[in-house]
Amino acid sequence: MSIWVAVISGLALVMLAHEGAAQTNCDPPVIHNASTPEAIQSYFQKRGKTVLTFLGYSGAGYEDTAAMLAHATSILDSYDPRKTIVNIGATIDGIGVVYELAKKKGFETTGIVSSQARVHKATIAPCAGTVFFVEDVSWGGLIEGTKTLSPTSTVMVRVSDHIVAIGGGDVARDEFKAAADLGKKPQFFAADMNHEVARASAAKKNKPEPKDFRGALGAAQADASKK
User: Fold this and answer.
1) Nearest to residue 94, comparing CAs of 10, 187, 181?
2) How far apart are the C-alpha atoms of 176 and 182, rounded to whole Å?
3) What tens digit of pLDDT does each residue of 55-101 get?
4) Global confidence as pTM
5) Whole-angstrom Cα distance, residue 95 to residue 112?
6) Which of 17, 50, 60, 107 is the Cys-Cys partner for 102 at CB 3.0 to 4.6 Å?
7) Which residue, 134, 92, 94, 89, is CA-closest to 110?
8) Angstrom distances, CA of residue 159 to CA of 69, 179, 199, 209
9) Are 135 and 40 spatial neighbours (Cβ–Cβ below 8 Å)?
10) φ and ψ at residue 162, rounded to 5 degrees
């Protein structure tokens, strides 16, 4: 994890605590390694609850974490914790801070993430609940050179009854479009990725300093609105 990502994650958690609620005591996540899409779908079907999935930035972080949490709070308040599972991408960064918020409101939580997270030793959110690692050669999104979703993104979209995206990069863009194509009517809230993280990432890759921080999903939504 880069120092910038660590800083942003830390700030997000501090802001969450500052806004009023005491720290949530979460049981350690239950980890399911090498899960197949079929096994994960079966798990959710047996739970018999509505699955509310949040998409957004992960390592890229948020420029305005408080605004992101405000959107998430508004959405969560419209669902019944007794009948709803809050599902995200398992890791603690970026949109992952919504796990703690969901737990404080009494929601069951789950995470679906590529096996690449295990390979790269990504930090799993303490309040992620039940976590499924999907065997995948990518982090998600479309399989390179095709219009087919990767295994991770395929199961993420399939198990979700409702999808809410707060900003988001390439993977979120591809999952959002797939959900829309299936008639799931995903919701989108515009949000900038963290500007400093984006600049640092570009510099590390010897790329020009970025000027657009909307993320791939935000750019796609803006383009679609012009048509």
Assistant:
1) 10
2) 10
3) 999 999 999 999 999 999 999 999 999 999 999 999 999 999 999 99
4) 0.87
5) 13
6) 107
7) 89
8) 23, 10, 35, 38
9) no
10) -135, 140
